[in-house]
Amino acid sequence: LKQMFKEGKPIINGWLQIPSAFSAEVMAQQGWDSCTIDMQHGVIDYSNALGMLQSISTTDVTPLARVNWNEPGQIMKILDAGCYGIICPMVSNKKEAENFVKACLYPHKGYRSFGPIRGLLYGGSDYAKHADNEILKLAMIETKEALEKLDEILDTPYLDGIYIGPADLSLALGEEPGFDKPEDTQAYKEILRILEAAKKKNLFTGIHNGSVEYAKKMISKGFNLVTVGSDQRFISSGAKATVESIKGIKKKQES
After folding, report:
1. Of 11, 112, 137, 211, which one's alpha carbon is 20 to 30 angstroms from that of 130?
2. ∠ Cα 209 97 44 (to 5°)
3. What pTM value is reported for the model?
4. Which residues pair with 12 in a beta bridge?
5. Are 181 and 149 a contacting pair, CB within 8 Å?
């Protein structure tokens, strides 16, 4: 992903909310550049995530995880399991950003404890030598305080970039939560402001989207990584479309 960033190639990220190694394997086989295990709003615990990481590693897809909070123990443990990038929610100021980044880095840059039990299997025997440079560290900008303290967050040493959650960002601005924000909303204006500020510092930028069309729009605006939907949403929408199509045909035949 870092190489794609350097080359200016857009990264298409899959999103996993279902606690299943098999569904993770199915998703990873579909051509995503990366797949993120959602441990914040998905129904996934550590043992689920471990099996999902094992499934993803049968492909060339880069495994990421969104942790449920800026908690060092959880961050270190999922990295030890072989995750190659962390999306950390609700990072609101410089101190929180520093704590997040340091949990991803070994001393002296950080305070990550050494014990990459599966990282060694997935990354190889030289894991420790390269982990600090390879692990992608993205802070989510989605709170009122984060908007006010954006520059100090972006100046955090060793932070690779930001990830925008439009729903929480909207709530922080007093708007209805949701994705694909219209251009006349304050949330949309803030999204572009965050993007511009991160670009000035040559930082990685990612955003969650509700549709393919909006994801393409965000790529055209300059985002490096776009997420569209999730495994749960794909099942729901695909099943619903099939059922409605068949029932629609049946109604026509009956009439």
Report:
1. 11
2. 50
3. 0.95
4. 226
5. no
Q: Which two tokens stand for residue 39?
A: 């441990």
For residue range 100-115, list pLDDT tens digits in order: 999 999 999 999 999 9
Q: How far apart are CA 32 and CA 11, in angstroms?
A: 8
Per residue in 181-220, is it b (16+ CB within 10 Å) or e — as a string?
beeebebbebbeebbebbbeeebbbbbbbbeeebbeebbe
Give the 3-state secondary structure of residue 1.
coil
Q: Which of 41, 108, 130, 208 is catalytic?
A: 41
- Which distant-in-sequence residues (6+ apart) come within 8 Å of 221 by Cβ? 192, 195
| Alpha carbon distance 28, 34 (integer Å) | 8
Residue 186 near residue 175, CB atoms below 8 Å: yes
Going by pLDDT thresholds of 50, 70 and 90, the confidence category of residue 242 is very high
142 with 153: CB under 8 angstroms? no
Tokens 């029932």, residue located: 247
Sequence length of the chain is 255
Q: Fill in the DSSP letter of residue 113.
A: P
Of 162, 110, 99, 114, give the one whose Cα is nearest residue 133.
110
List the beta strands (DSSP E) in 69-147. Answer: 85-88, 136-141
Give yes or no: 41 in active site.
Answer: yes
Quick one: tokens of 18?
């279902």
Cis peptide before 108 (omega within 30 of 0): yes
Cα distance between residue 13 and residue 252, in whole Å: 39
133-186: pLDDT as tens digits: 999 999 999 999 999 999 999 999 999 999 999 999 999 999 999 999 999 999
